[in-house]
Backbone:
């Protein structure tokens, strides 16, 4: 029934006309005096008691709500000791777990971080008066305090103080609240390094859960990283002592004049930013001195640094696997808690019927339609029994994300169009021929050949333009190519149908690039200079060539699957940037400027002098004074340049010459921190790609396993919903029954889709290991 396809998960459900298909339904009507089981009406003896029925209904509603909360805790990886235990805690929990609260939490954290644009040292065009930004800060901090109060009411005092992240957030809030009041009273800013802790408020947001996981993995990978880092620093110190002893006698060598300079020079050499400059003074005196630098780089850069990556990759791989098992265990435990609540009051507590499942979904997914709830129930019902067993219910998180859509019944995509359009399109015999041609290998090879020729054409044409975008003879070829691509798009849309065509990511990409290329052509033809940038999108057509080879497709698929996680890793890096930028602004703002470092070895990079060339006087300018910490934006640019490490020591030495030697600790610490994050990012990419390659070799796509549901069953389900929900909210079920009646076919197919996740791949990769663990009881816990 479920298919782990490369780009999506699918579930198929067939609704088939039949009058005698056994199916379980359990419900109570408005009077509460009958049940239906296997299409048989069973009267309930005795007159109904309205108060008892109302109490029973309220009790079930509470069970549904609590079961939904357990499932949400399993999905969000919330610990079960934070589960609400009373009515007050429940109201606070519900308030703190809605999207409006999440948005308020996110906007408050973003506002606090954006205040650094207006606080001293501020971006010139965003500067605000002290009382304005201090008042905004107090307002944002008050909102954070309100959020913590709601969590305190929900968790209770003892659970609240046990939650480490919440306590850290509360302490930072207290410190920053006092500082903001002091700034507002004094009407001037003071040294506020604690502003670097503001990202804690962002990290604690619900929408930044991926960032929290990244930070957790970074800290979990630190022990082996620190071990190898200490080994690296040990060899660095040994070589620094040796270099000082060998080269300090050379007065022309500033890199080893003191032991401090030796350590700093070798630290910079580790990044290769000062190589071979650091070697040349010693090399000019003695050619054999190059052996010192060759051995140092061979050990430190090519051995220990790669060993560092290998150790971090191995640790990261183990952490990823343990995290997956932990999340899987937590979700199964949440499902077990919810299952027990859904079967507690049943006569036969061996499964969950449709009515109980529907009640659960009304709290878990309030916006889900009745039809989708019914289809989700059927998708879970692998065993074909009358109720969902616990084994069926274990698939809850895999099925709940499916988006259901009726598959086209007719042979052609235009069968459901109005009769006139249907007859016109049906009369076009070439539509069928187009569909046949689109799947042939000759068509694909022809398209790839045209794309390759287009790529060569673009290279030749661009080389002939000499940096100018002009209308030339090459534009004729451009028009012909665009006409070819346009005809291809129209043929595909006609042959496959708009819905099928645009459901493919590659087709959507081709369509977008073709449309933008036409817009670029219009911009050239009408000399619309502001839109010339669209022309550069033409080379993106060449990406279609990567579909030829399977390995290229795997690389691109991996890249697209990694994009959400890479975005979270990028945000994690930005958080580190923010903290270091705040510290840099507090200590190094307005430190560097033109002609500032005349006593430093890097003075030439900051010098501005007038030079006469012929009859003209030009300004010879060193641009490194632009790498400063005068505001948050300049700080981010400077930190990015430090991350790239090319000539980063010039910025470090310029700041050091204007402050103290201890300033080097800031830059070295930043390099080590970014090295940790970048190593984690590289390890993540390696792990994801290797994982996908192993998955592709190990697994083959399974066939669909459809299920059949009778039309009588669908009508009885509609009748049940009428008794439970009334006549409202049933349009989706009614449409399903009407479509089944009008189709004239024996079945109606529904296709469920959702994006595939790393968890789906892990379930396949570790399937045997997980099953063994289940049998041996390794993955069962009690909360």
Residues:
């Amino acid at each position: 029934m479920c298919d782990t396809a490369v780009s999506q998960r699918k579930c198929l459900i067939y609704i088939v006309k039949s009058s005698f298909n056994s199916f379980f339904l359990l419900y109570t009507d408005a009077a509460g005096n009958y049940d239906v089981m296997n299409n048989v009406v069973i009267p309930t003896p005795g007159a109904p008691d309205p108060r008892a029925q109302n109490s029973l209904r309220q009790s079930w509603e509470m069970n549904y709500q609590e079961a939904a909360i357990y499932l949400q805790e399993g999905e969000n990886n919330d610990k079960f000791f934070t589960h609400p235990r009373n009515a007050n805690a429940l109201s606070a929990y519900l308030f703190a777990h809605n999207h409006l609260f999440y948005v308020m939490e996110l906007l408050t954290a973003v506002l606090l971080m954006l205040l650094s644009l207006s606080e001293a040292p501020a971006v010139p065009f965003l500067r605000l008066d002290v009382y304005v930004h201090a008042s905004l800060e107090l307002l944002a901090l008050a909102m954070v305090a309100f959020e913590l109060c709601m969590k305190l009411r929900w968790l209770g005092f003892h659970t609240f103080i046990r939650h480490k992240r919440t306590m850290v957030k509360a302490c930072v809030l207290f410190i920053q609240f006092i500082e903001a009041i002091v700034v507002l009273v004094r009407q001037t800013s003071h040294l506020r390094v604690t502003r670097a802790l503001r990202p804690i408020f962002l990290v604690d947001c619900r929408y930044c859960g991926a960032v929290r996981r990244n930070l957790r993995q970074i800290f979990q990978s630190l022990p082996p990283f620190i071990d190898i880092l200490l080994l690296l620093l040990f060899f660095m110190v040994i070589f620094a002592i040796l270099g000082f002893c060998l080269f300090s006698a050379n007065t022309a060598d500033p890199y080893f004049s003191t032991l401090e300079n030796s350590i700093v020079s070798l630290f910079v050499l580790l990044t290769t930013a000062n190589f071979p400059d650091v070697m040349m003074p010693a090399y000019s005196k003695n050619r054999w001195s190059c052996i010192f630098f060759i051995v140092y780089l061979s050990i430190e850069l090519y051995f220990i640094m790669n060993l560092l990556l290998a150790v971090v990759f191995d640790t990261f791989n183990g952490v990823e696997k343990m995290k997956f098992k932990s999340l899987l265990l937590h979700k199964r435990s949440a499902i077990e808690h919810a299952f027990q609540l859904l079967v507690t009051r049943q006569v036969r507590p061996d499964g969950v019927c449709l009515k109980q499942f529907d009640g659960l979904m009304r709290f878990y997914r309030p916006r889900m339609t009745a039809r989708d709830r019914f289809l989700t129930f059927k998708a879970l019902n692998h065993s074909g029994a009358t109720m969902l067993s616990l084994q069926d219910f274990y698939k809850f998180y895999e099925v709940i994300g499916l988006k259901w859509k009726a598959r086209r019944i007719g042979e052609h995509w235009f069968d459901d169009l109005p009769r006139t359009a249907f007859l016109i399109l049906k009369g076009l015999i070439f539509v069928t021929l187009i569909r046949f041609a689109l799947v042939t290998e000759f068509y694909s090879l022809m398209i790839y050949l045209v794309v390759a020729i287009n790529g060569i054409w673009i290279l030749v044409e661009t080389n002939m333009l000499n940096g100018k975008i002009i209308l030339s003879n090459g534009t004729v070829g451009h028009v012909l190519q665009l006409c070819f691509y346009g005809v291809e798009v129209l043929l595909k849309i006609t042959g496959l149908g708009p819905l099928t065509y645009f459901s493919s990511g590659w087709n959507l990409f081709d369509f977008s690039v073709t449309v933008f290329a036409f817009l670029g052509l219009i911009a050239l033809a009408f000399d619309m200079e502001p839109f010339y940038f669209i022309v550069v999108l033409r080379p993106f057509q060449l990406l279609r060539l990567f579909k030829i080879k399977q390995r290229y497709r795997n690389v691109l698929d991996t890249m697209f699957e990694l994009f959400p996680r890479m975005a979270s890793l990028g945000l994690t890096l930005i958080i580190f940037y923010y903290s270091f930028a705040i510290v840099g602004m507090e200590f190094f703002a307005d430190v560097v400027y033109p002609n500032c470092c005349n006593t430093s070895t890097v003075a030439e990079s900051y010098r501005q002098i007038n030079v006469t060339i012929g009859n003209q006087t030009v300004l010879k300018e060193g641009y490194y004074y632009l790498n400063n910490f005068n505001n948050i934006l300049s700080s981010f640019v400077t930190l990015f340049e430090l991350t790239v490490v090319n000539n980063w020591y010039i910025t470090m030495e310029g700041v050091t010459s204007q402050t103290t030697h201890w300033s080097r600790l800031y830059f070295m610490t930043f390099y080590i921190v970014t090295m940790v994050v970048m190593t984690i990012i590289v390890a993540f990419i390696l792990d994801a790609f290797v994982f996908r390659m192993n998955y592709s070799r190990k697994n083959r796509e399974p066939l669909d396993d459809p299920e059949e549901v009778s039309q009588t069953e669908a009508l009885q389900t509609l009748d049940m919903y009428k008794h439970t929900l009334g006549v409202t909210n049933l349009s989706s079920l009614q449409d399903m029954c009407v479509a089944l009646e009008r189709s004239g076919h024996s079945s109606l197919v529904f296709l469920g889709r959702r994006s595939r996740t790393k968890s789906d791949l892990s379930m396949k990769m570790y399937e045997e290991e997980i099953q063994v663990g289940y049998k041996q009881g390794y993955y069962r816990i009690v909360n």
Summary: Residues 98-204 form one domain. Confidence is low (pLDDT under 50) at residues 1-45, 469-474, 701-710, 778-783. The longest strand covers residues 9-16. The chain has 30 helices and nine strands.
